């Protein structure tokens, strides 16, 4: 059974989410503070984490940092009451795979849960995609720039995979939403710019040549 960890300090909201996930057939563990949540995330075998942005005891950004530092790549969906674009960008900048703004509908949250569970369940293929000195292994979900390993979030990986599969092509934002994240994606189309920016920062961390080009008013292309 798919196992989801919910870290949420609002007891009533946590219970509501737990019941909705249970109804969909998911096994759910619940933690009500950051430290308890981190301990559970480190001990349990999980398929997904739903993480509140504001937590007592230990911040969500610290939970993410500690998990990723040990190689834990479980997808993380943030729950946030902050609706400003800068706050949403901050959540993505810490490396979260997705976010849901409170108040939200159960259908919205469940759609995003399905997206990330589907990605992890279909990720294992043996094909390697390459462009210039960039390589992506679909089976291991590892990305290298030369000999440098690059750690990507789930959304960043999926976006880069799509660009690598269509080199030298200009890809519009509408096409990314439809073909990379499907119609289940719920969010502002401007968030794509956030993912592109994060990808560029990671791919060019030591002043490497830019590979993702912005075509103003149209979209993005992988090229030199």
Describe the structure.
- The chain is an alpha/beta fold and 224 residues long.
- Helix content is 40%, strand content 22%.
- The chain is built from 8 helices and 12 strands.
- It has helices at 11-23, 34-43, 60-69, 85-93, 106-121, 154-165, 173-179, 191-203, and strands at residues 3-7, 27-31, 48-52, 76-80, 98-101, 128-131, 134-137, 142-145, 148-150, 171-172, 212-215, 219-222.
- The chain has a 5-stranded parallel β-sheet, sandwiched between helices.
- A hairpin with a 3-residue loop joins strand 11 (212-215) and strand 12.
- Helix 2 runs parallel beside helix 3 (60-69) and helix 6 (154-165) crosses helix 8.
- The chain starts with a strand and ends with a strand.
- The mean pLDDT is 85.
Shape: globular
Structural class: alpha/beta
Order of helices and strands: EHEHEHEHEHEEEEHEHHEE
Number of strands: 12
- Which range does the strand content fall in? 15-25%
Question: Reading side by side through the largest sheet, how are the strands ordered?
Answer: 2-1-3-4-5
Uncertain runs are none
CA distance, first residue to last residue: 45 Å
Largest sheet: 5 strands, parallel
Average pLDDT rating = 85
- What fraction, in percent, of the residue positions are helical? 40-55%
Count of DSSP H/I helices: 8
Rg calc: 17 Å
Domain OmpR/PhoB-type: 126-224
Protein name: Response regulator transcription factor
DNA-binding region: 126-224
Keywords: DNA-binding, Phosphoprotein, Transcription, Transcription regulation, Two-component regulatory system
